[in-house]
Amino acid sequence: MGATTDSDEIVQLGKDYAELKPVVEGVRALQSVRSEMEDLQAMLDDPEMGAEMRDMAKEELQALKDKLPGLEKDVSLLLLPKDKDDNASVVLEIRAGTGGDEAAIFAGDLFSMYSRYAQLQGWKVEVESDSPADMGGYKEIIASVSGAGVYGKLKFEMGVHRVQRVPVTETQGRIHTSAATVAVLPEPEDIDIGFSMTDVRVDTMRASGAGGQHVNKTDSAVRMTHVPTGVVVVCDAKSQHMNRANAERLLKMKLYDMEKQRVDAERAEDRKDQVGSGDRSARIRTYNYPQGRLTDHRINLTLYKLDKIVAGDELGDVIDALISEDQANRLAAMEAEG
User: Fold this and answer.
1) Within 13 Å of residue 196, how many CA atoms lie on the same side as its CB?
2) Can you count the helices (H) and strands (E) in the chain?
3) Most buried among 56, 115, 174, 233, using CB within 10 Å?
């Protein structure tokens, strides 16, 4: 990094260094243990070694043998091919599904959960646009989440989230089932999808909101439509200039995500046990409030601490389990391939 003065190159080299450092440290630790084992075995092969020293050497050698498989697994995981988008920031989209007012409230609960989890990770969350519901929560909310390793942590959250509970609007205490959908769009540093603004129709309109002079009287909201695919994005902050920039950025991400979904789906056909199957419409998780239970259906994970997970404080337990399962599947596939 000291060999260049280009700021962009320094940033990239810093990222490369941070990614390679744990791999190098893991390999060195493994090599060190193997070297120690060889030295201890050489000591044991020495016929002149005393009984007390031999017992100590045997004990140390056995401890290293017990430690070795864990180190080998750690290095294997570090050497697994990485999703090139894992370090990318994302746009998080949450939409109310079936269930009316309760679905919108649940969508709001999910956004609060992810916001708290992001805070614990040291990430930054910025709302791009939202459509509040009358009874609380959101019909739709779109937010940018930026920081280190965001997509790698949140990519398994994509899909349909189902909630079972007594809604605040229920007068007879009956349990209802509602749903919300979550989409996580990576924002890679270089998006090369053959994008051209000549394929985009741009419309301006009045921003939606709670009222006020600016919101109601200025055509600041921007809607962009990618004509070849029909993909539409809307940004409705106060600044039309900012909305244009954000809409173009979001449109590129959506088109990139469409291609990523296609590739993921093709891979899923070849690897049925993959956690991230590429099917964004699949029901992935159930939040059962009467039993305080969360179940992730992809890995048959059930945890009875729903309140702490929905609060965002222990969502990491679910995400870490999904990452571990995906790593195990990919490691098994790599070993099977030889």
Assistant:
1) 4
2) 8, 11
3) 233
Could you give the CA distance from residue 44 to residue 142 in angstroms, rounded to a whole number? Answer: 65
pLDDT tens string 72-119: 877 877 776 677 788 888 989 999 998 889 999 999 999 999 999 999
Task: Supply 258's token pair.
Answer: 């469409």
CA atoms of 102 and 96, how far apart (whole Å): 9
Residue 109 tokens, joined: 């609960």
CA 175 to CA 290: how far, in whole Å? Answer: 8
Closest C-alpha among 142, 147, 141 to residue 89: 147
CA–CA separation, 72 vs 299, rounded Å? Answer: 24
Q: What class does CATH assign to 89-193+275-336?
A: alpha beta
One CATH from 3.30.930.10, 3.90.180.10, 3.40.640.10, 3.30.160.20 for 202-257: 3.30.160.20
Could you tell me which residues come within 8 angstroms of residue 118 by beta carbon, excluding any fewer than 6 positions away? 124, 125, 145, 147, 150
Cα–Cα distances in angstroms (integers) from residue 253 to residues 110, 169, 185, 202, 246, in the given order: 22, 37, 6, 17, 10
Specify the pLDDT at position 163: 95
Directed axis angle between helix 51-78 and helix 315-336, to 10°? 100
- Among candidates 38, 35, 1, which has minimal Cα distance to 18? 1
